[in-house]
Amino acid sequence: MPPHLARRPNHTPISCHILRFFPHPVRARFRPRPGRRGPAALSAPTPADDQNEPNDDANQVVPGRDGYHSTPALLRTSAGPVRIGGTVDRYEDPRDVYRVWVPKGRKLTVRVAGDAATTLGWIAAQTSRIGLGAAVMQIPARTPAMTAMTAVTLDILSGGRFHLGLGVSGPAVSEGWHGVRFNPSLARTREYIEIVRTALRGERIDHHGPQFSVPLAGTGYRPLRLSVHPARPVPIYLAAVGPKGIELAGEIADGWLAAFFSPEHSAGRVAAIRAAREAAGRAGDRFEVIATVALSVGDDPQAAADNLRDYFALYLGGMGTRERNFYNLLAREMGYEEQAALVQERYLSRDRAGAAAAVPFEFMDETALVGPKGRLAERLRAYADAGVDTVTLWPVGQPAAAAAAALRTAASALDLAGAGG
Questions:
Q1: SS3 assignment, position 307
Q2: Are strands 368-371 and 255-259 parallel, antiparallel or unpaired?
Q3: Is 63 helix (H, G, I), strand (E, B) or coil?
Q4: How much of the chain, in percent, has pLDDT values that exceed 70?
Q5: The pTM is what?
Q6: Sequential DSSP letters for 331-376
Q7: pLDDT tens digits, residue range 239-286?
Q8: Residue 206: partners with Cβ closer than 8 Å, 6 or more residues away
Q9: Higher pLDDT residue, 407 or 88?
Q10: How much of the chain is helix, strand and coil, in % rounded to 5?
């Protein structure tokens, strides 16, 4: 826990934090508020479409006022300029932002975005205090030894600021992009993390299980170990949606990366984490529940939620396959059986507008932050009371100026809720 986050009685402090980086030409700035005590919300927003072009000066380092610098990065491709780093606002005061999470190579329709580790290395060079997190590195994309090498390198380069997020991904990306048969088994994830932890401890990897064999069985090679060591034990977070995966996160990881977290429907999941940690003898160890929450600010909650419809339709309708869409299954478990089926049917029939229109407001309201500041404050308090330690705010599909304003409002709502550090 960062030193500036004071623990509240009977609660772990909830914080709005996070720069999200996406391969879109966006420019987002957030000015630190003088004398602010506690983390501010910050994000590089995703624009409403892919057609916005960056400004002509987008490759320049812009000297910032009030203690920050805006440093965009562009990659020139045959398809045009792609902003691989969003905009990093470098804060001299560590109270403003304390962690940056960078997503995996995200599948966008038939395209795949960039690599999280490379972007994190770039961000590490631009910053000195904020934490750096991968959300997530895909298990089918890297061997566990490669993940350990990447993690230790990023931790050394950043001076001990790296946080490793892992996830099994989904069949469309695993098989359609990496060419690796999708395997969501808990045994595979368990062995994978065991090997990563062994390597990060500087021990030789001599692992022979049903999922992984290192060194490869029958080769006669000696077990190897890393010649470098992380600055400190690298925390490992597990992204999980299903109950068994969440229990596994509680048992073997240092945190859970939650998506579409509903304070009203997650008591059982949080309790399962606690039970798993007690059974593993880790009840006293630090564990962080991180919920990624879409954000849209406006006086009318339903109108604000309309800004998020395309995002929800993509996840409920277009992620994975018809039979293996974990987010759709989650919505069904929350009581939206018919609505989730309709969204998926329309989306897979290429009726994207119809799919977006079919997303129930109630589901968005439960799993996102929508409405005016007072309402955001109430919901942030609900997240804190439900056991969430950190909220990742994502102003989806909004122009940069609107996204920055939304984040300022959310930061103010966090103060109003009294749930921050």
A1: coil
A2: unpaired
A3: coil
A4: 73
A5: 0.78
A6: HHHTT-HHHHHHHHHHHHTT-HHHHHHHS-HHHHHHHEEEESHHHH
A7: 999 899 999 999 999 999 999 999 999 999 999 999 999 999 999 999
A8: 214, 215, 223
A9: 407
A10: 35, 20, 45
